[in-house]
Amino acid sequence: MPLYTVTVKVDEDLKRKMGVVRINWSEYIREAIRRRIELEERREAAERLLEGLKARKHVAPKGFINETIREMREAR
Amino acid sequence: MIDASVASRFLLVEDLSDKAGLILEDFLGEAFDLRAPKLVVYEAGNTLWKAVKQGFMNLDEAVQKFSYFLELRLDSIELDEEEHKEVLKWGVKNDATYYDSVYVRSSKKIGATLLTADDILYEKAHKEIPTLHLKNYQK
Questions:
Q1: Distance from CA of B18 to the nearest CA of A (A)
Q2: pTM of the prediction?
Q3: Which of B25, B40, B69 is nearest to A54 (CA)?
Q4: Which residues, 6+ apart, have CB-to-CB distance to B59 below 8 Å?
Q5: CA B132-B134-B137 angle, 5° bins
Q6: What is the pLDDT of residue B71?
Q7: B15, B57, B120 member nearest A70 (Cβ)
Q8: Per-residue DSSP letters for B50-101?
Q9: What was the pLDDT predicted at A76?
Q10: Which pLDDT band, with edges at 50, 70 and 90, does B120 fall under?
Q11: Do A60 and B71 touch (CB under 8 A)?
Q12: Phi, psi of B116 (to 5 degrees)
């Protein structure tokens, strides 16, 4: 998979401190970006689900969910 | 940690789905993360399947909802061989189904409170781990 360059600017003090800590900064920043994107995708999904609940479009009778799950857990 | 009785209330409007909405709002507010074992996908998926079969939504709507549900990536807890054996032992000892016991062991594994809307799971779990019934959830 090709890798692309992303530039992150830091001040002189931070650059000096980064040099003291012996870790792979590229890998660290890649992982931080990946996690943030995953979190944003999860948040987007939560917002869509919340919109669905507020629209009250797909209504099930009281007890439907618990009965369905209980049937699965006890009859499989 | 949530079980499928809570997660399914993200998908369908039912009793306590207003509380499920509060859970989503608090997740969005970064009050906590939402996690569950892989079992939650199968149980919520089957609940959607039955909702389509009974005409509460059509298939396209269910697929769209399930897509959002999967993008939530709740199913991040995996149990290893030893933990699965413990699930079996705990379930037999406490007269709980294997599936209920998976939620109890998964909550224990990550040190999280189990949130459920299922009375039977609540009764079994609260003697072993911190457990909250969805009806008692408050912001």
A1: 8
A2: 0.91
A3: B25
A4: B52
A5: 75
A6: 96
A7: B120
A8: HHHHTTSS-HHHHHHHHHHHHHT--EEE---HHHHHHHHHHHHHTT--HHHH
A9: 57
A10: very high
A11: no
A12: -140, 155
